[in-house]
Design a protein that fits this description.
This protein has 516 residues and is mostly beta strands. 4% of the residues lie in helices and 51% in strands. The radius of gyration is 23 Å and the shape is globular.
Length: 516
């Protein structure tokens, strides 16, 4: 991950926790660190029935510095228990930080592969865990790869994807080749300790497209993740089979450029032998950098579950003052759509937190009408809408609205006369704070016959939106404490076929220690 250090000094630990607990913008049912800084999800997994979430963590303050691995466990993906720090910097290859990585099962032994940081460079390291994953021992061979590939002018080199093929381990390390584009370097090993360089799995082309575009592939790929979408093992079918309708392989990466975290993307195609042959490039989340560095795993029931880092959209000084930074997305189930792209939905377990159900009667909203107060209110909400838009219609769902109308965050669905359908998040009036990010976020949504199933999860400053399986994740920072929810047909007619709403309970109870 790119380093975002901050010059402000740390505050006493008890004060840091108190600041974080007191911040009205801090989410209550998304995972957040006890206080301080959180970024990438790491080592996400299920081990002997228990879900494990490791994450990049600085418990000394709400800024990126001397990164450790925080650790939390859950049996339901909803309520989490803080565990002791899994990894922290020590003399040697990770003296300046334990950066992003993964958890693998090495013949029954839990093993972490991660990026150690020393003297402004990152190299792969390994740590071996106890049976309960609570104690970790770094191996003396670290770093297990002594340097990036020789003779290659790289932009950066870090983050890992590791899997097993028969008796051989394979590993991808995210990187970029200067003057060409992002890449993932492929290695193989028999023991996770001695690695042989194979070559670049696939090299992107940073010269293609405008760097301002939401699908520009960047000059470096962070947090690469390779998996088969659907049934079958990696590399089990040729590329032609993807075009014939068989399940594709998916290469996820976060586009990075000169220290700037851009957006997550994924290629569909076929991994075969030592290469990945791409078929198509897709945006992973229309919120861009607000769902960054995603990592996925297959749980014991066969679901592919993904977490992402919902980074902040407020100033460094505001984060430090608040005592915390960074939110983990809700875990989402990743499935394959009929058109060969990925679809996403929050794991069903999230529904355990629902309280106080409200059902809004169906009706036809007439274009140009005034906003309809739904009778739903709150800043911790789960909303499910079933709507049908006539050609040319625009539906606006307002959330976190203040009574005087000065603040409101607007989720917009539009269906053009040419049947092009767009999901948009309008944050221009989401906050009276002039320093927060209000950049427009939008993307296309499949809308057969104008029908959309819309799911919106609001958790104070965290918003996750799913429209027919396409996600848009973002952060908002309302200052007035508004909780109003409204509906408007801005243009054309919209049939409201169903609208169910719930308030969401907190998933944490009481203060949490920085160091469990």
């Amino acid at each position: 991950m790119t380093e975002l250090t901050h010059p402000l000094a740390t505050v006493p630990r008890d004060e840091l926790v108190a600041r974080a607990e007191a911040d009205h913008l801090r989410p209550r049912f998304h995972f957040v660190s006890p206080a301080g800084w959180l970024n990438d999800p790491n080592g996400v997994s299920q081990w002997n029935g228990v879900y494990h979430l490791f994450y990049q963590y600085n418990p000394e303050g709400a800024f990126h510095h001397r990164i450790q691995w925080g650790h939390a466990t859950s049996t339901d993906l909803v309520t989490w228990t803080d565990q002791p720090i899994a990894l922290e910097p020590s003399a040697g290859a990770d003296a300046d930080g334990c950066w992003s990585g993964v958890l693998v099962n090495d013949g029954g032994t839990p093993t972490l592969v991660y990026s150690g940081r020393l003297d402004e460079r990152e190299l792969p390291c390994v740590a071996v865990g106890s049976a309960d994953l609570m104690t970790w021992t770094k191996i003396p061979e670290n770093p297990v790869i002594a340097a990036p590939p020789a003779g290659v002018d790289i932009t950066a080199y870090r983050d890992h994807c590791v899997w097993r093929e028969g008796t051989t381990w394979r590993q991808l390390v995210g990187s970029g080749i200067r003057g060409r584009g992002g890449t993932a370097f492929l290695y193989e090993s028999s023991d996770l300790r001695s690695w042989t360089y194979v070559g670049p799995l696939f090299i992107g082309d940073a010269s293609q497209g405008d760097p301002a575009d939401t699908d520009w592939t960047g000059t470096m790929w962070e947090c690469v993740d390779l998996f088969r979408a659907g049934e079958g093992a990696l590399g089990s079918a040729p590329l032609a089979s993807v075009e014939a309708g068989e399940d594709p392989d998916v290469l996820v990466f976060s586009a990075w450029d000169d220290g700037e975290t851009r957006h997550p993307l994924y290629w569909t195609g076929r991994y075969s032998g030592d290469t990945f042959e791409p078929a198509a490039l897709h945006r992973l989340d229309y919120g861009g950098r607000f769902f960054y560095a995603p990592q996925s795993f297959e749980d014991e029931s066969g679901r592919r579950i993904m977490f992402g880092w919902m980074q902040e959209g407020r100033s460094d000084a505001a984060m430090v003052e608040a005592g915390w930074s960074g939110v983990m997305s809700l875990p989402r189930v990743t499935t394959l759509a009929d058109d060969g792209t990925l679809e996403f939905a929050p794991v069903p377990e999230v529904e355990k937190l629902r309280r106080n159900h409200v059902s809004v009667p169906g009706k036809v909203l007439v274009g140009g009408g005034t906003p309809v107060d739904t009778g739903v209110s709150g800043n911790q909400l789960d909303l499910e809408l079933d709507v049908q838009l006539a050609p040319g219609a625009v539906l606006r769902l307002g959330i976190l609205g203040s009574g005087d109308g000065a603040e409101e965050t607007v989720i917009e669905l539009s269906r053009s006369l040419e049947d092009k359908s767009i999901l948009r998040l309008d944050r221009t009036r989401s906050s009276l704070d002039a320093d927060v990010d209000v950049e427009d976020k939008s993307g296309p949504v499949p809308m057969p016959d104008g029908r959309v199933r819309l799911r919106v999860l609001v958790d104070r400053s965290a918003v996750e939106i799913f429209a027919n399986g396409k996600p848009l994740t973002a952060r908002v920072y309302p200052t007035l404490g508004g909780e109003r929810v409204t509906l408007t047909a801005a243009e054309g007619n919209v049939s409201l076929l169903g609208f169910d709403a719930w308030t969401m309970a907190d998933s944490w109870g009481g203060p949490r220690p920085l160091f469990p």
